[in-house]
């Protein structure tokens, strides 16, 4: 990749130079903005990263408690609570709602859970262990709370990761490809324009010199003409035509034939 | 942004589950969550959870995973890590933000953060970052 191939294929004109300069300004501004965006996203990303790690750790703890309380409930209410629970599933009373959060133009999903309808108490009607069952349910609701939070963190993590990658790619593309290319184009156009100017200047000088010479020539011709005229006039006054004088002179140059001999 | 996945804002979505109930042990993760009120059965008797036992084939699990991840009314899919390991390639290749895949621990199979596709990435980044921050 030489410097020559790193420029846009444009006609080097003043208009183009203006357009290129405007584009360079735009690219610079875009680069600065994208850089800012990338920074903002990275800040958010690191926060989420830290949160994910801590939540994952607490998740293990909470799952352990809920599993334990389930075991308790099973112990008290009997083994077949499982089948009762599996049979009594109808519609979900615990659902999640998602809303969006906007971080520097990137939409991050945030989940929150909510209970819909009354909490089903039909299982408390089992022969025994109603309280344990309730505790178990509470423990699992708590686990779900953590899991839902973790889910939104994780989703944000993935989305942000993707967004940061794209933004960084754009930043780098602007910085390393678009801007140098525009700069090269501008310098190329400037060089070409300078060259044209020098050529023009040289041409003008040349024409000037030519004209000067032409005028001198004409002046010289006119002078000669005037001198000739003057000479003819004098010779006419003397009665000899200048041609005759010439003839005389030229005749004198010829070798005379001896008249006598 | 053109390539960011569209995130639908829904007023209510479900939590799906693929979790285990292994053989003779009477520990299972699904029951607890069902007790909390997560379970849903729709008109066509389709459930939003799958109980994996010793008779469940890998194919069934994979199908359930694919179904849960393509359903629009599901926002979060909980998979117990032991099950996720059975179809690790599917879980790893899944990269959409919604529904979110969460690997949860189960009692007979202790949680191993190294297997979690997200957490391994997180840990990787986190370590790189903490190394970078200590260097400053």
Automatic annotation (TrEMBL), chain A:
Pfam families the UniProt entry points to: ATP-synt_D (PF01813)
Q: Does the keyword Ion transport apply?
A: yes
- Matching Gene3D superfamilies, A to Z? 1.10.287.3240
Instruction: Provide the alphabetized UniProt keywords.
Output: Ion transport, Transport
GO terms (molecular function) for this protein are: proton-transporting ATPase activity, rotational mechanism
The UniProt family comment states: Belongs to the V-ATPase D subunit family.
Put simply, this protein is called V-type proton ATPase subunit D-like
From TrEMBL, chain B:
Q: Does the keyword Transport apply?
A: yes
Identify the InterPro entries for this entry: ATPase_V1-cplx_f_g_su (IPR008218), ATPase_V1-cplx_fsu_euk (IPR005772), ATPase_V1_fsu_sf (IPR036906)
GO-annotated cellular components: proton-transporting V-type ATPase, V1 domain
Q: Which family does it belong to?
A: Belongs to the V-ATPase F subunit family.
Q: What does this protein do?
A: Subunit of the V1 complex of vacuolar(H+)-ATPase (V-ATPase), a multisubunit enzyme composed of a peripheral complex (V1) that hydrolyzes ATP and a membrane integral complex (V0) that translocates protons. V-ATPase is responsible for acidifying and maintaining the pH of intracellular compartments.
Q: What is the annotated quaternary arrangement, including any partners?
A: V-ATPase is a heteromultimeric enzyme made up of two complexes: the ATP-hydrolytic V1 complex and the proton translocation V0 complex.
Q: Write the protein's name.
A: V-type proton ATPase subunit F
Which organism is this protein's natural source?
Gossypium davidsonii
